[in-house]
Structures are given as structure tokens and as C-alpha cells.
Design brief:
Elements lengths: L17 E2 L11 E4 L1 H12 L4 H8 L3 H20 L3 E4 L9
Parallel strand pairs: 2-3
Antiparallel strand pairs: 1-3
Helix pairs in contact: 1-2, 1-3, 2-3
């Protein structure tokens, strides 16, 4: 059983649901799920270009927690690209969003 996070995190609202290779049916692909925290870490670090400390402050977490989320996201995305997998995005709840 996964333990609930003790610190609520400020996550972005991401409209995507699935990212997969073209011309391969989803049913034929292994699927990897990115959490809303991992999506937010990727957005702040790689898309927006924030330094880890600044991004962690935006999420309301420590830099170490941000670093773990980002490393996990990078590993999952690399696995999806090089092992031909689909990426599923966790949908944020109604009370979250930046």
C-alpha cells in the first residue's frame, strides 16, 4: 500500500492523457504511468528551465523531493522511448493545479 504524501504539492494541470508511438495499437504496448508530481517536475525543470531549488519552491516541496521526482520522471520517459512503451499521465484532482 502506498503511503499518502505528507506535504501537499502544487502540480500543474496537464491536458494530455497518453503519449505513444505512432502506428502501434495501445493494447500491444507496455504502459508506464507518470504521476502528476513527475509531470510537474519535468515541466518546471526541462520545459520552463527553472533551477531545482526554484522549481521545488513552486511545488512547495524540498529540493531533494523535487530531485527524486525529476529523476524518476527522466527514467520513465527514457524507458518509454528506448523500449517502445506508452506513457500514461495521471490526472490531477479537482482541487490541485497551478
Amino acid at each position: 500500500m502506498v503511503q499518502q504524501r505528507k506535504v501537499p504539492r502544487n502540480c500543474i494541470n496537464y491536458e494530455g492523457h497518453i503519449f505513444k508511438p505512432v502506428s502501434i495499437p495501445l493494447k500491444d504496448l507496455e504502459q508506464i504511468k507518470l504521476t502528476k508530481e513527475e509531470i510537474t517536475a519535468l515541466h518546471y525543470a526541462d520545459f520552463s528551465g527553472f533551477k531545482q531549488q526554484e522549481a521545488a519552491q513552486k511545488m512547495g516541496i524540498s529540493q531533494a523531493s523535487f530531485s527524486r521526482d525529476l529523476a524518476s520522471a527522466h527514467q520513465k520517459v527514457a524507458s518509454a522511448f528506448f523500449e517502445i512503451k506508452a506513457i500514461l499521465f495521471e490526472e490531477p484532482s479537482d482541487k490541485e493545479g497551478v
